Amino acid sequence: VTSLHSALGSGAEFDIIRNMLRGRLRADPRVRVGPGDDAAVLDDGTVLSVDMVLEGVHFLRGWLTHEEIGYRAATAALSDLAAMAAEPIGLLVSMALTDADRAHAEELLRGADAAAVAVGAIIIGGDLTHSPDRLVLDCTAVGRADRPVLRNGARPGHRLWVTGRLGGAASAVRSWLRGEEAASSTRAAFVRPAARVAEARWIARHGEPSAMLDLSDGLVGDASHIAAASGVRVVIDEASVPVAAGATLEDALDGGDDYELLFTAPAGHVEALSTDFEAAFDVALTRIGEVETGKGVRLRTRDGRILDRDVGGYRHFGSRS
Amino acid sequence: VTSLHSALGSGAEFDIIRNMLRGRLRADPRVRVGPGDDAAVLDDGTVLSVDMVLEGVHFLRGWLTHEEIGYRAATAALSDLAAMAAEPIGLLVSMALTDADRAHAEELLRGADAAAVAVGAIIIGGDLTHSPDRLVLDCTAVGRADRPVLRNGARPGHRLWVTGRLGGAASAVRSWLRGEEAASSTRAAFVRPAARVAEARWIARHGEPSAMLDLSDGLVGDASHIAAASGVRVVIDEASVPVAAGATLEDALDGGDDYELLFTAPAGHVEALSTDFEAAFDVALTRIGEVETGKGVRLRTRDGRILDRDVGGYRHFGSRS
Fold it and tell me: How far does the CA of residue B156 sit from the closest CA of chain A (Å)?
C-alpha cells in the first residue's frame, strides 16, 4: 500500500500535512500517482509500493514459519503492484531481527525470494538490523506499468468483480485466536496467498477495468476505497460473494489479507471473458455487484435487506473496531 | 543501504542464500546493480535504497523530537542515493507507531518531508501501522542516475577523499550514553545530518570518482567496504582525518552516521577542484589517504605506526564489538 495518505484518516489534525503532501505532488511533474492508491507511479511508469508487518500485530509467532513470514510480507507488497496491473521487477527487504531470528534470516529471505520469483521479480536489496524483541519486515516492491489501473475510474453502471474466494485468511486467524488449529485450506490462504500479477495484467489487457485494487482491508473496506476514490457508491450483492471453504460470509466481507483483486468494468466487458479467465488461471472470477450514483458501500443481504456500510474492514486482529 | 548482501556476513550459513541471490541477479537484465552497494540500480537508471531505524536500537526517545526522527530516517535513505550520485525523486515512509506516537505522526512526516525537499525529492507514499511498544521507521528512496558511482572502481594509486568533518554524531551519542547533554554542534550532527546529494553530483561531474559511498558504519568500516568491493587496500592517514569540533579521532574513525561522502579518484583529479568545491558548498573536502595493492584498511597513526584494521565500524550503540 501507499496508504499513508488515506491511513492518516479524516481527522482535522492531519489536514495540514495532507494538504502539504498534495500540494507538493501537484507541483512535481516527475510523479504521476502519489499517496492514496495501491502504489506510487513516477512519470516513466515506475511503480512503487511498500508494506510493513510486525510480529504481534500482523501475525503471532507460531502461526507461521520464518519462510512463510518472508513469503507473506513480500506478497503483500507485490500484490499492490498487481493491483495497478504493473510488472514487478524488484523487491527490497528490510528486516529487524531479534537475536533468536538471526539463525532464521536465510529462511525469511528464501520465503521473500519465492514470493518474488512467483511473479517474475527478484530481491535487489534491503536492510538488515537488530530488534530487541519483535520481528519487523518492511518490503518495497518496484515495477513498471505503462497504463496503471487506479482506484478512481469506477462510474455508475459499471459492474463489480472479484477474483478467487474470500475469507479464508480471516477464518484461519479466527481459529488461531480461539486457540484452535486452522483448517488446512484456510491456513494456506493466510500463509501462502498469491499476488495476482498475471491475472491483473490479463484483466487490464482484455477487460478494460475502470478501477482496481487488491483486497487487504477486507471486501467492504476495500470497496469503500474504490467508492471514495471514484466518487460513487459500490453495491455488493451478498449472495454473489464467493466464500472460501471453511470461511463464513462475515470472514469474506470483513476479513482482511485475501490479496484477491477487486475491480470494476463497464457492463458487458468482462462477462464474456470470465470463462477464459478461469480456464487460464484456475481462479474464480465472479461478478458481485455494481456501481451506482452515491457514496459508500451498500450491501444487498441474502434476506433482501439493504445495509449501508460506510466503514469496516480489517484493522489488525488486536484492535478490530 | 542495500546492505542485505554484505550484512549477512561471511558466515557459511548464508552461502546458499547469497549464491542464490547472486545467481538470480546475474540472469536478470532488468537489474544493473543488486544488493551489496549503497543502492540498487535498474537497467533504466532507477536507483533504490532503503533504511530501517528502531527506537532503542538506532536512537533513544528523548534524544530526538519526532520531527528529527522523521528527518534523520529519511536522510539515511536519501544519503544512499547521494552515494551513487543519483538524483532523488521520491520517498516512501513506512511507520509503525505506538499509541503515544499517533499524535506525532504529522511531525514525523514533516521531518521526512523536510529531508526530502532539501534534496529535491517528495514523499510519494508509505505505510502506516500499529506498534505495541516501539517506534519503527523504514524509508525507501527512489531516484535516477545515468552513471551511478559504485564501490568497486578504486585502483592502486587512487587517492582517498572525504567531505565534511567526522565524528560529531558519535560524540553526541557518547555524551547521551553517559547521561550528559551533547554539545550543540555534535547534537546537530546527529539530529540534522545532510544527505550530500548536490555535493556527490558535483564530484561525479567534475572529479571522476572511481568508488564512492556515504559514511554510515564509520570511516574505517566504510573504507573496508570500498576495499572489499574493489579488491584493494585502503590506507588512511590519521593525521589528515578532519575531526568535527567536540569529537575525538576515535569518534571520527569508528563512529557511525556521519553521512559524509567517502570516495576515491585517480591522482590529480580532485586536488585542483577542492577549493571550488569548498566555495560552492561550504563543506570541507579533504584528502585522507590512498589506495594500494592488498586488502582491508591500513591506518598510518599520528605517531607513525602502521595498523591493519580489517573490521570495525558502528554496530548500533548497544552492541559495539
Answer: 29
Chain A partners within 8 Å of B54 (Cβ) = 96, 129-132, 136
In tens, the pLDDT along A285-321 reads 999 999 999 999 999 999 999 999 865 443 333 333 2
Lowest mean pLDDT among A3-12, A64-73, A115-124, A129-138: A3-12
Per-residue confidence (pLDDT) for residue B85, from 0 to 100: 98
3-state helix, strand, coil split of chain B in percent (to 5) is 35, 25, 35
C-alpha A89/C-alpha A156 separation (Å) is: 35
Closest by CA to B80, choosing from B216, B276, B243, B281, is B216
Residues A137/A70, Cβ–Cβ less than 8 Å: yes
Question: Kind and range of the H or E element at B285?
Answer: strand B285-292
Residues 6+ apart with CB under 8 A from A219: A162, A166, A236, A241, A252, A253, A254, A258, A262
ipTM of the complex, rounded to two decimals: 0.92
The dihedral over CA atoms of B57, A71, A170, A56, expressed in degrees to the nearest 10, equals: -20
**Window B:85-144, CB contacts with A under 8 Å:** 89-90, 92-96, 103, 105-106, 109-110, 113, 117, 122-134, 136, 138, 140, 142
Q: How far apart are CA A182 and CA A124, in angstroms?
A: 34
pLDDT digits (tens, 9 = 90+) for B90-112: 999 999 999 999 889 999 999 99
The percentage of chain A sitting over the pLDDT mark of 90, rounded to a whole number, equals 82
Backbone angles phi, psi at A248, to 5 degrees: -100, 165
Q: Identify the CA nearest to A134 among candidates B126, B135, B5, B101.
A: B135
C-alpha–C-alpha distance, residues A301 and A303, integer Å: 5
CA terminus-to-terminus distance, chain A: 21
A 54-83 → B contacts, CB under 8 A: 54, 56-58
User: How are beta strands B285-292 and B159-163 bridged, if at all?
Assistant: antiparallel
pLDDT (0 to 100) of residue B27: 85
